[in-house]
Amino acid sequence: MPRHVFAALGETLTQSLLSGDFAGYASVMSLPLRITPRGDPAYVLQTEDALRADFQLYHDNLKGRGVTDIFRHVAEITVVGATHLRVRCNVHIMVHAQRIVDPFETWFLLVEQPEGWLICEIESARGHIRFSLGLSEIRGGAFTPKLGEAGGEDGET
After folding, report:
1. To pair with 60 at 20 to 30 A between CA atoms, which of 38, 50, 93, 138?
2. Pick from 91, 140, 62, 44: which is nearest to 154 by CA?
3. Are residues 105 and 88 in contact, defined by beta-carbon separation less than 8 angstroms?
4. pLDDT class for 1, splitting at 50, 70, 90?
5. How far apart are CA 46 and CA 87, in angstroms?
6. Of 140, 144, 146, 156, which Cα lies nearest the Cα of 100?
7. Whether 107 contacts 88, CB under 8 Å
8. Could you tell me if 129 and 156 are in contact, meaning their C-beta atoms sit under 8 angstroms apart?
9. Rounded CA gap, 99 and 76, in Å?
10. Peptide bond before 32: cis, by omega within 30 degrees of 0?
């Protein structure tokens, strides 16, 4: 898969998350969607309602931080099988020209469907997934537990 194909998918993902466009977001996801925070148990979104709830949490947290862009630098694309690709990215969450958290690695597993390549699994830093769920925040350039919350270090594992 050429990098420009993932770039287009990633751009749809970013613009949808930042603007609150659930239909655009859903258009690049394949259900069931497995989400694996490194160091925490994976969870699976089985339904569109579950995907919408997960999307809304992430959108609200990005909006609350004033995020204006999410840049994914593709480091590697690996063919996993006839219909699957794994894309490894270094992710930068930005407010205008400033990164608000240190870059972190995310893996996307893509599946080829009649409508094109779709994301069927996301593996990312524990803090990133917890941030997307509203369980951690960004302080001092790092994902950290919300004040008063237990749960250990949220950094990339």
Report:
1. 38
2. 140
3. yes
4. low
5. 22
6. 140
7. yes
8. no
9. 22
10. yes
Share the mean pLDDT of the chain. 92
Encode pLDDT of 60-95 as tens digits. Answer: 999 999 999 999 999 999 999 889 999 999 999 999
- The Cα angle at residue 108 between residues 134 and 112, in degrees rounded to 5: 130
List the beta bridge partners of residue 94.
69, 99
20 forms beta bridges with: none
SS3 75: strand
Burial 39-73 (b: 16+ CB within 10 A, else e): bbeeeebeeeeebeebbeebbebbeeeebeebebe
Supply angle C-alpha 119, 93, 48, rounded to 5. 35
- The amino acid occupying position 17 is L
Q: What DSSP line would sit under 83-130, residue for residue?
A: TEEEEEEEEEEEETTEESB--EEEEEEEEEETTEEEEEEEEE-HHHHH
Instruction: Give the mean pLDDT of 7-32.
Output: 97
Residue 99: beta bridge partners? 94
